[in-house]
Design brief:
- Keywords: Cytoplasm, DNA damage, DNA repair, Nucleus.
- One of its GO terms (biological process) is cellular response to oxidative stress.
- By secondary structure, this protein is mainly α.
- It has helices spanning 12-22, 28-55, 57-63, 67-75, 78-81, 86-97, 105-123, 132-140, 145-168, 174-177, 180-190, 200-208, 220-231, 239-248, 250-266, 272-281, 284-287, 291-307, 312-331, 349-356, 367-384, 390-402, 405-415, 421-432, 440-458, 466-478, 482-498, 502-515, 519-537, 542-558.
- Mean pLDDT is 82; it is low at 1-8, 124-131 and 172-177.
Length: 559
């Protein structure tokens, strides 16, 4: 038996008989025979692989109906899969037989069988097997079981990565060397193995791989599995690989964005520094440097805001995300940077440029002028829109709200008498009450002016009592319209922070505001936004910063 080593070209029946005869090579005689035939078997497998590539899976199965039995038996022979590139060639044959778009139950069952064989070849429990035959074979090679399979996986990955990269740069010859169906099959075979650290180079190579077709060639199962593993921190990928994943698979980007929102809602965050770190770790602000990703994430945030009735928590998250996105965008190399219009294609570009100017980029003395400029542009746009155009009104409101730092500075400058009050009050009234149905915004403006005028009379008083502020507190408690209540709370909170007399009453007054009203969460989010701004600028006096931190500590226990 050991003498017969002459094999006719693609003598399928001969090798099927041999595979049946060998079994799993459990006897000394069969082991010797396998070893003598391994070079010829490897050549046969290579020819078989080329034949499958040429004919396609359907024709191949028609010509060789027992091909599954042959490959299945060889995959379970430890001497065969341990020899040179035989395991790689077996896997390539299986990948070519895989149906990327199964048409019937038979093809579905065949795909399942192929996946199980591929999984066995790389991560079967027999890696750690104590079976005498496998252990003896591996020991004879000078490896421990773990080392042997570790090297085997690495070599397989290197080989596939090299092949894919070479094909990627073959230009028009790509169809000749690697078919889309085969790349799809390779991505499928990666699915059960995605969390293997040694597989990462192959995952990234696949994510960067683009064939000649506009149709996605990677399996959706593969893209979903990679995204899921990344979100659960089971694998580590380069930023560019993650961005490529989200650009080519919209469901993964949507899931990543919703995952971030769930994460932020489910944990207790005591500062916007923590919020910013969680958002930054998600890689979404960095990925949003690509306009397509930015616009999709932005739409998801809009929907989340509408579904939660514009809660301050969601708005604060959006503002931090926008701030981090701008940082990432400004850090981009000029040759890679997209113009702002690519991110905000349907908005008034002069308003976009004004809002994107970060406060620290301007001298404090110019803030007043800049705020009036923003307010005038917003008012002109709003008054130019037909009253029934709620979508257009919402888009303007959302754009302004994304850059909420300017709104907080507007309230601060208003109380410090550093701006023209009418323009800035109108901007704040629009933010808290964008619709003017039944004169809601007009009424909000009247209420805001009354609160503002009352607070300005008290701003310079060093000796204040709670009674002096009772009128403002009662307004917050008694106002039925939520927008009026939130704007009044905003003005009163900043009065307590920035006026000399307000510091003494801040904690007691804050207790009254948050104890009997829903304004507590609004005030809390306002304070953590302000703390975030102070920490980044470092310009505010230490007394105000200390008071702010004390108020936050007390509110953290209540909100």
């Amino acid at each position: 038996m050991a003498e017969d080593t002459t094999v006719p070209k693609l003598n399928f029946d001969y090798w099927l008989d041999k595979a049946i005869e060998w079994g799993q090579a459990t006897t000394l005689e069969s082991q010797k025979d396998v070893c003598l035939h391994l070079p010829q078997l490897q050549e046969f497998l290579h020819q078989l692989y080329e034949t499958i590539k040429l004919l396609g899976s359907t024709v191949t199965i028609q010509q060789f109906p027992l091909i599954g039995q042959l490959l299945g038996r060889l995959c379970w022979n430890p001497f065969v899969i341990g020899y040179d590139e035989s395991q790689k060639t077996l896997m390539l044959c299986l990948c070519c037989l895989y149906s990327s778009e199964p048409q019937n139950a038979v093809e579905l069952k065949a795909n399942s069988w192929i996946r199980s064989l591929l999984c066995h070849l790389l991560c079967s429990s027999k890696w750690e097997s104590n079976e005498a035959e496998t252990s003896t074979f591996i020991s004879a090679l000078g490896y421990t079981s773990a080392d042997y399979y570790c090297h085997l996986v690495k070599n397989m990955v290197i080989s596939l990565v090299t092949e894919l990269r070479e094909n990627q740069f073959n230009g028009l010859k790509i169809q000749e060397s690697t078919s889309a169906s085969r790349v799809n099959a390779v991505s499928i075979f990666c699915v059960p193995l995605i969390t293997l650290p040694d597989l990462t180079p192959l995952l990234e190579t696949l994510l960067f791989y683009h064939g000649g077709s506009s149709k996605e060639i990677l399996s959706s199962e593969f893209l979903e599995a990679v995204n899921e593993a990344f979100l659960k921190k089971k694998i580590s990928l380069s930023e560019s690989a993650v961005f490529s994943l989200w650009l080519r698979h919209l469901p993964s980007l949507e899931k990543a964005t919703l995952h971030l929102l769930d994460q932020l809602f489910s944990i207790r965050l005591n500062s916007l520094e923590e919020v910013a770190q969680v958002i930054k770790d998600s890689l979404l602000p960095q990925a949003a440097s690509h306009p397509a990703i930015f616009r999709i994430v932005n739409e998801i945030f809009k929907n989340a805001l509408m579904e939660t009735d514009g809660t301050s928590e969601v708005m604060t998250i959006i503002q931090v995300f926008t701030h981090l996105f701008l940082q990432a965008h400004q850090n981009e190399y000029k040759q890679h940077k997209f113009p702002l219009k690519a991110y905000f294609p349907y908005h008034h570009q002069l308003l976009v440029r004004a809002l994107i100017r970060r406060p620290f980029e301007l001298p404090t003395a110019y803030w007043s002028q800049h705020l009036k400029h923003i307010s005038d542009m917003v008012k002109a746009l709003v008054e130019d829109i037909n009253i029934s155009s709620l979508i257009g009104l919402f888009e303007i409101w959302y754009l302004v709200a994304c850059f909420g730092e300017w709104l907080d500075i507007a309230a601060e400058q208003l109380l410090k008498a550093a701006v023209e009050p009418d323009a800035v009050l109108w901007l704040l009234a629009f933010h808290y009450c964008p619709k003017n149905e039944n004169q809601q915004r007009t009424q909000t403006m009247v209420e805001a002016e009354a609160v503002y005028n009352h607070l300005m009379k008290l701003f310079s008083c060093a000796d204040l009592s709670l009674k002096d502020l009772e009128a403002a507190v009662h307004r917050i408690r008694g106002i039925e319209q939520c927008c009026n209540q939130r704007l009044t709370a905003h003005l009163l909170t900043y009065f307590l922070l920035f006026s000399s007399g307000g510091h003494k009453l801040a904690q007691e007054c804050m207790h009254h505001i948050t104890e009997t009203t829903d304004a507590g969460k609004e005030v809390y989010n306002l304070l953590i936004r302000t703390a975030y701004r102070f920490n980044r600028s470092g310009e505010e006096n230490q007394r105000t910063v200390k008071l702010l931190n004390e108020l936050l500590q007390k509110l953290t226990l209540k909100v």
